[in-house]
Batch of 4 targets.
Target 1
Amino acid sequence: MKYFKNKLKIENVGVHTLAKKFGTPSYCYSYRQLKSNINSFKKNFSSFDPLICFAVKSNTNLNLIKEIKKFGLGADVVSMGELMLALKAGIKPKKIVFSGVGKTSEEIKFAIDKKILLINVESQSEIEEIEKIAKQKNKKVDIGIRLNPNTDAKTLRQISTGKKENKFGVNDKIFFDLVNQCKKSKNINLKCLSVHIGSQILDHRPYERMLQVIDRIIYKANYKFEFIDLGGGHGHFLYGLKNTEL
């Protein structure tokens, strides 16, 4: 959005024109900015071509998700409703990660039936519930374990998710115990170490500290993870990205 001759415009269309046509309040999204953000993100991480998953909780507009899907992105969901939305938008199940706390048995069953890429778990009880359901269905389920890296994102206290006092993820001791538990399971396949330390992070240093923790944990766990889920929360600082929350 830019001002031109004291008139606020979005992609050269005046907001007054939009308000007159669609009424207020209205939501307006810039496809040009969306495309620029996604391509910039992909370009800066092209050396290892990661799977980029859009956090559906940040915007549940179906048409927007359909456009995002065209760029090859996957989805990070935190509820069955968001998972259904991602599938309806055409995102392939093997590009969908189910994160978040408090998943119900119904949601876990639905995710297993849809054969999504990963279910990121937050506790031992969640692993036990997945194992019970997987055993009933005679399936092996791919999961990730969310580690709490005790890393301060230096952002708003209310949206911090990576410090030890936050409710998200497990500490390193429990993490190692869960890794060993998964090794013995016939119905769970541990594939991912997951972290997420917050949102609107405008400094690269919290990520550096987080990566140092992850490096130590992987070495100590002596386990080969197929995926490392680094979460999101990047603000505009990251490699010149602007207004990005991917």
Target 2
Amino acid sequence: MRLFALAASLRQASLNRKLLHVAAGLARRHGAEVDVAEFREFTMPYFDADLQARDGIPEAAQALGRRILAADGMLLASPEYNYSLPGHLKNAIDWLSRIRPVPIRGKSALVMSASTGPIGGIRGLWQLRIPLEGLGMFVHPDMYIVPHGNDAFAADGGLKDPKAVERFDALVRDYLSAASALARRGV
């Protein structure tokens, strides 16, 4: 099982980047190969149909699409911005939707979020599901959130609470099982 892992955060000290690295470590422990990318690798202009008609799809969007296509599934950590997904992530999804075939169609994803607030970014994840599922991605039904993220991570970057690690590990295992089944079917 090969996974593409991306934190849709630009901040160097991002809680979502920390959460993604925990997820990647758990997935590796269960035998997955994980390609972790930085969102800044895929800096692209705002989606603009006139720009696309004139210059084609930006290389950064194409590179993101190639990395997704090379994987069987995806780990995606996203912050919540104003009750929704970050604009730069939505922009990247909009560009991906213009590539043929659409790179995320038929792929699967486990989405997760960490925030400093009490609800862990869940509102943003519900909004994120809409364009991903609309474009044919199988988003795992269970999502993982980390509320009060400023206090949730240890100095080494791992989660402090052993019960949280246990729940996250079970979710990652469940996702890997589902993603493997989907990948075998060639959906």
Target 3
Amino acid sequence: MAHVVTQPCVGCRYTDCVVVCPVECFYEGEKMLYIHPDECIDCEACVAECPVEAIFHEDNVPDEWKNYTEMNAEMASQCKVITEKKKPLADS
């Protein structure tokens, strides 16, 4: 099982969640972060750290954001891993 970054992260890309991840499974996209589903250990540390409540367990992703589950898997393999806190995007 894994966690999924969803729509509220688009355009803000806070990285508070990244620094608490014990396995470095976050990947930085142009407009949002992604969680690699094969690397996530389901520890839930990131959930409480997300200021926009964008991270859900894959079984609890709201219906309107279900497509983000596949998107995280696809995009994480195309993006660079992120392990340190960075400034959020300008429009956040």
Target 4
Amino acid sequence: MEKLNQINHNSGFLYGDFIIIVIALVVIEILYIKFVKKQKYDFGSTIGSFGVAIGNILLRPISVGFTTFIFTFFERFALFHFKIDNIFVWIAGFFAFELCYYWMHRLHHTIRFMWASHAVHHSANVYSFPAAIRLGWLSIVSLGWAFYLPLVLIGFPSVMIGALLTFNLAYQFILHTEISPKWGVFEYFLNTPNHHRIHHASNPQYLDKNYGGTLIIYDYIFGTFAKDNGNEVVKFGLTQPIISYNPFVIALREYWLIIKDCSKANNLGEILKILISKP
């Protein structure tokens, strides 16, 4: 029970103390865009993002409870049992977690039933802080949790994995803005706003690039890194844009499209092909 409480506390941090920082940064970004850049701010998109975030918060106890149960259950079968108070375990865990995140993220762009959940995050047609809180409502179904299960089976404490996931989510929030300057030498190994804006681009040459969470090094290693070539305006959102600001449309559209396609299938094999096909 103590471990369950620890994991719930860690995973809830983003929606607890950090929410104050979220609101503050959104306000700063609004003021900067309106009074410094003198551009129109899309309040409708922001309202839609917060609507999606509320739905995610309401459903989050289910996903956290399920993931906690799975991780703590399989923890007893781990090959090793690394000590959480060892700094080298944390360092190794961080790089291992980032590798798992990279492949989780990449496959969520490759397999349709996974993309249905992740598409919610890419649905904003403007790249701003509120886009960061557009998180899918059915993360259990998309199997994101399964990519971290190997870390548990190796021997990394489930509490550590929960903490690393929380840090990853919190860190990525600050990446979702165009008002940040480049980060200099950090651009070579960290995921930055400059890199992540390309990940959210819908221009054909930028699709399925820059999957990193906190680190960008795995994109270099696996050949998925891309940078702004400066030849055209970067467009954001989905290749088939969502115009609606309705959070239910934003969160569930891709699932509805999958259901429509599956309803036309003639057999189970065709349904399976639809689910695992590329988005």
